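Let us practice reading a record.
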Amino acid sequence: MLIKHSRTATVSSLLLVFTLTAACLMPRGANAQFGVSPSQTSNFFNDFRNRSSQMKKSAQAARSGDVVYDYEKGAYVSQEDQEGFQSLQQLLRSDREISQPSVRSGSSAFAARAVGDYTSYSGQYSQSLSYFAPTYTSDPFLSGKRNMRLGPVNIGLGLYQGFEYNSNVQRTPVAVSDFISSTLLNVSANYRLTQNNVLSFTAGIGVDHYFDHPELASYGSGGTMLNLLPGSTLAFDIKAGPVYITIYDRMSMRPAVNNAFMGGNNTASFGVFQNDFGVAANWQINSAWALALNLTNTISNVLGSANQQFNRTMNSIHASLTYSPTATWILGTEGGVSYLDYDQQTLNDATMLNWGLFVSVPLGKSTTMKLAGGVQNFEFEDPTIFAPLGPGDFTDLNGYYYTFSLTNQLNARFSHTLSIGHESSINLASNFITADFANYGISMVAWKGGRFSLSGYFEHAEPSFTNPAFPGAQSDISQYGVDFYYTHQLSSKIRLGTGYHFGRADSVAIGADFDQHGFSFDLNYVLSAKAGVNFGYRYFITDSRGANNDSTQSRVIFGFNYNF
């Protein structure tokens, strides 16, 4: 859904000073996290190199003219970049949205390999979203695009107001329903102090309110809780000769679900606050060689008195050295060390090393292949707390990882992507968890006005230690599923979408097997050049296959978008 806007005039520079000062005083948080897995380290450096390239381009010239705000992508794009409706990649994300777990979603497609990442819901599909911005924006420098200007500051603003009826908020056999209001303000601003120095702030700030059952709110008071989307970032970018430097502070505060953390059947939610403060540098040594470094301090805290065993601090240093003599294929080495320190002794502190090689090669004009592999070494301190109060895991890791991805844009109507891998990551019911996984997705233009996509996933995960006497213990688990989505543009103002999800989990643990079916329907309507409305329906059926833990959930969602 595309909404057209023109640029507006300037306002007082005093307001600029107030705006930037307020941004500096906001709480701090984060999105993805180093030391959790090698693939996340690789995603960070890919995103950071792209950020350096964006800063270079935005310094050379700013685009002019009208811009388009895509409410589905949640990003500002120029008309020459995007006409019509969703791109094939966005269509694939829409296909996978129904199975993406979140605090009120009925989906149980949690990725066991990602439960140690506090700042994003551990869905099965690999997502290469921006580390330095919430998912609604992909260009922190706006490339000259904006919908208002305060002095020398470019600002993009978008408001979302949603109302939801949820028949089973916690996805339990005995359902508790509620009406929920969600308000979200998307902010993307930058101030170019000089041609080579840019201060930027990107954030998604919102409030949820539970009307009938305020006790269902994960934190806050009176059923109201403040959300700061993962990826909200205050950053200062500097170009010093051939070196691009980013000093960043990333912010997140959001509800989490216990089974995303523990892999069990506990569906109660709690709040998670996280702060990442870091310095990253990208040095173009010459036309062929480049070196990137990143130092990060991460503080993660649970909001409330329960689940304090998850509080931790992580300090990381990572590096990536690349060689690309022709600016087409890339050969490199990357990795680093993370130092993990929990506030309590329920889980074990650790020193974690990941290091390996990677190669990225274009195969023709429309296909890209990337292969990475290396070693992992996790050394944990011996436990001092044992079951039933803690896992009591003595296991260290001396292992390997690999990831392989293949992306092909066959033509303007068809694209598909494949990723497979094997890696270990920190866990919350044992020292670590090792997983083999695969994702595949295709998206295509079927006929005039119609597009569809199909995705599938597989994961087999094994925790380093299982003690049934520990209430949060995990067991070996295999999961697989499929997702389908079809969208049709009925007119320039109306778009319909419908989807289906099937997921299955087979676990060694008794009573942990389940099948799940999910259905979705979406209607989007453009009201004006600045406003749009959307209606959504979600229905999930979860069959616990004999464990007396079946549940159903219906969600009816009405939303209003406004672009200032």
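A brief commentary: The chain has four helices and 24 strands.
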